[in-house]
Design brief:
Elements: H1 2-5, H2 34-37, H3 42-57, E1 61-66, H4 73-86, E2 90-95, H5 101-112, H6 118-130, H7 132-139, H8 148-159, E3 165-170, H9 180-195, E4 201-207, H10 209-218, H11 220-224, E5 228-231, H12 237-251, H13 265-274, H14 279-295, H15 303-310, H16 316-322, H17 328-337, E6 343-344, H18 345-352, H19 356-368, E7 373-374, E8 379-381, H20 384-393
Parallel strand pairs: 1-4, 1-5, 2-3, 3-4
Antiparallel strand pairs: 6-8, 7-8
Helix pairs in contact: 3-4, 8-9, 13-15, 18-19
Amino acid sequence: MEDELKVYPSQIYTVYGLSRNPFEQLASEGIEDVEAIHVYQEVDMKLSTIVSEVIGNKSSIAMSIVGPLGMGKTQRLKSIAKAIEKEGGKAIYVKVDTNDILKLTRDIFYALKPPRSRTNIFLENLSRKLGFIDRLEKMLSDTKEYKSRDIAEMLVKQLSRFPHSTLLLDELENMQSAREHEKIQFFEMLRHVISTMPPGCIVAFACIPEAYEEYTKIFPAFFMRLHYEFRLRPMSVEETFELVKKRLNRVRVKDTDDPLYPFTEEALRMIHDLAKGNPRQILRLLHYVLSEAAKRAFDPIDELVVTTILEEPKSLEEYIRRVPKDYRDLVEAIVYTFNGGPVSYITIAKELKKPANIVYESLNRLVTIGFLVGDPGGNYKVPNYVRKFLGEEG
């Protein structure tokens, strides 16, 4: 319990001439000036060209962004939204958090609404009288009432009110557990939106590869309509160096000749390889290694330091202590309630009374960063070296 209460002040980073740990923010959403630290890959150049084309020539484009968790899909969607809004357009960004196509479709229309005011309430009442809202509500009351083409036409009509518009669906894999005919209804609606998009419109969605392959099999007609498909690739070692330089540069309080200091190139190569080039995983490892190295005043942080810090834990307690705080309850449930697994994400969700899709995503993140092992059947268990501790305890 003592380890839980230790708070290390940010002064520990002054040993390296840094004001704080620049790797703590893993997701781009929390960072104000994200462009300044973003490492541009070919996909960013292509996206930039596409957005310019849509804004300049009033073309309409549909695309998908596919990649594992932590590869920067959300950041790319958010950059499209920002570009469209900058031009006075309307950006509908929806993080898919459900497998219910009625709720998901309602979320899309809800994002279209301006903030409520007297005028808006008046207009809403007027449109209710005209039947727009009643018609929509009826179609979203039951999947039997869901008319893909009619819903798409209503959505396109709303998008047409703006000079530029974009519909962005993030984490579309969370719809994977919907019934097949409902997925088809939803994709049919999207297909009709793409077929009748107004000028200056972008429809884009992000998805992990496994779900994407499944969706393409179910509804090939929709995927054939996409103009572009972007497959995000892992970062190269050079891009990892650039990421580290940009992040460190933001918090340097003391000049240095080496922009990678306190890391050596070899240490960063090792972190890059351990993370298999996944940007979020690289940041997790950098954050952990820098904070541990600073506590012990290792200088510089070379391969040996990285190996020392990242070696396998010596006990079950140490393993659990290393798990990121936000995910610890999941790991404790697998270890103590289910004897290390394998156990399905649905069983864990029921045990912890948490939404299944959030538990699923968290467990996959724990697999990505090496704390759990997953299988294609959706079951999760502790790695073999932890199983050894469970045996000792038994």
